[in-house]
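Protein record
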Amino acid sequence: MTDTLFSPDRTSPAQEVDQSSFMKLVVEASKTVPVLVEFWSPSSATCQQLTPILEKTVRATEGRVKLTRLDVTANRTLIAQLLQMGLPLQATPTVVAFWQGQVRDLFQGVQPENKIRSFIEQLLKDSGQAMPVAEQLKNADSALHAGELAEAINLYAGVLESEPENAAGWAGLIRCMIAMDDIEGAEEAASQIPEGINNDPLIVSALSSLKLYQEGREHAEKIDDIRQKLDQSPHDAELKTELAKALNGTGQREDAAELLLGIIAEDKDSTTGQTAKAELLKFFEAWGMTDPATLAARRKLSSLLFS
């Protein structure tokens, strides 16, 4: 009983249509809501691969797009008519988008989820709509973490177009710019953040990341000089901290964290130990709490502090 009550709804969003209902459920319906038709065959393995991806993406639109399915083997008369109209339905699966009673676009074969999402986003745009903001943010965050920065920027921009005061959208956009080493772009984005959300934790964290990155770049320019000084004074905690900032500025997060952890390990209760800890916590905030470098260094920090 508990599983039934709390399990997510996995009911298919697709509506089966045939040649008797095609005009009403597809063509007529598309005059008010965009309609996708998945032309499929029960014997096609590729159809079985595409269907769950298509259903997942359409479900994310929260009703903004309607999904229908038509079995080509059971509706040969209709398929013949559509072929005469120029639709390339010789192979399955073929997905056709209808809007305002007309074919808007189509694709054939199994496509990656991000390609299908882009296809549906364009259909929504053509119909004067957009993906739900929560879904856009989820996809943008995934793209950012995967290093697909151009896609992430487009998705965050889409969020801000719908909700100009969305803190997660602004924070994500700034982090993308930082990841692209586009400091000017990040600063420009930061300057456009609406005043009312400046104190939002997501904004504060993103701006902290930007400041830390700027400092890291400045230190990175002097990294050779810092290393030479450290060779002469290998126990100088201040120089080690400067080198950690420089390493962070060049993307060497693990090495930067190890330097600061080393200072803390020498004397966690001293002024230098506390300073290194504070700097490391800044790194964590800038990197994000789920970043692999943060997780690894945080575990080591906990061991040091509670040992």
Summary: Confidence is low (pLDDT under 50) at residues 1-9. The beta strands are 14-17, 35-40, 66-71, 94-99, 102-108. Residues 133-207 form a domain with the Serine Threonine Protein Phosphatase 5, Tetratricopeptide repeat fold (CATH 1.25.40.10).
